[in-house]
Amino acid sequence: MSKTIEGILSRVRELGAQAFVVTSPVNRRYLTGFTGSAGTVWISESKRALLTDFRYIEQAKGQCPGWEIIEIDEMEQAIARLISAEGVKAVAIEASHVTVHQFKSWQKAFSAEIIETEGIVEKVRMIKTPDEIEKIRRAAAIADHAFAQILPLLRPGVTELEIALELEFTMRKAGASGVSFRPIVATGERSALPHAEPGNRVFANGDFVVMDFGCVFEGYCSDMTRTVLIGEPTEEHMVIYDLVLRAQLESLAAVKPGVTGRQVDSVARDIIADAGYGQYFGHGLGHGVGLEIHERPRLSQKDETVLEPGMVVTVEPGVYLPGFGGVRIEDLVVVTESGREILSSTFKELYVVE
Hints:
Layout: H1 2-14, E1 19-22, H2 25-32, E2 40-44, E3 48-52, H3 57-63, E4 68-71, H4 75-86, E5 90-94, H5 100-109, E6 113-117, H6 120-125, H7 130-150, H8 160-173, E7 178-179, E8 184-187, E9 208-213, E10 215-217, E11 220-221, E12 224-230, H9 235-254, H10 261-274, E13 286-288, E14 295-299, E15 312-315, E16 318-321, E17 325-328, E18 331-335, E19 340-342, E20 351-353
Parallel strand pairs: 1-5, 3-4, 5-6, 12-20
Antiparallel strand pairs: 1-2, 2-3, 7-10, 8-9, 9-12, 10-11, 13-14, 15-18, 16-17, 18-19
């Protein structure tokens, strides 16, 4: 991590600052390993410190080797004292992780100029280390296991909420510390809602069932989606499912170093549009996954980020027909030196509940 810190500090210097204050809980954990709920990171030419209160001092000492742990009572005054003690003329902050009220208070309390920054740590986080990738791989394996366990439970008469709860319980029982987001289980016409909340609707013959879920393993997330069908498929069911599957497989094959998020997105988007369903695919193709379920980069029409080895992204095209239902298929993918490694191992052929 020392190379990471030096890289961050180099960027801070380029912006004309001599210190960097990190207030994002996720970025704090990424940099220091600290999992407590209160703390701020201080990075300067002479000090790498975690500032926290009495409740977390012993925890921080155990989780943050190589970091100075400073016990504080009031964060604002503690930072102000560091600024004065080190003669800092300008301090960089994470603008998107500071409230307007906090920013105004800091302007009054700090003797240094405040320089607003965006995405300094997030940019570093896009490239995962082998250890991070292994944790994501473990989280993906737990999700695959959970899906296999709930397949026998899928039948007419069960509810969305019952299956969502079973997914969460199974992932926790298999070693997950929690879910990476509340599982989506949407059946029938509700499967056309990309982010439907699971409710009491029961599975019925003729329903697509979209299940989007993931878990957290040692802080890192997984994310996958599979769509199944209750009862005998019609021609319309097969046309939509086969279209989404083809778009997903071909866009997966496009993931490799050197292409942009926009270029990968366009592979799936063009296939779906050429089939006449472009208006029914209204979200981006995918997103980065790591300590957070949605990270940079994005596979979207606007993201020009060039994919690099070590990035972990989802590939999840969908078609959603109001009043009928929807299909989404999603895998987790690591960008490798030669192409990609797919972390989700669950089959993608249409599973029909008879």
